[in-house]
């Protein structure tokens, strides 16, 4: 079984895309943390690519950020 880590290029790419979209829309880490029901510290880990975003949370982020889930994978 493959064990994914936060340093994997795919995770780094997705986290970067989340951050880009969040900043483009002017949404704070605190606001997204509330949407995902995580602490702002955990959201900061996602934002910096230090933690892996689950599929469920990625789906929620896509809805909140107004993009399809596939958008996070564009440019990979």
UniProtKB/TrEMBL annotation:
InterPro entries: Cro/C1-type_HTH, Lambda_DNA-bd_dom_sf. SMART domains: HTH_XRE. Residues 18-72 form the HTH cro/C1-type domain. It holds the Pfam family HTH_3. Gene3D superfamilies: lambda repressor-like DNA-binding domains. This is Helix-turn-helix domain-containing protein. It comes from Kordiimonas pumila.
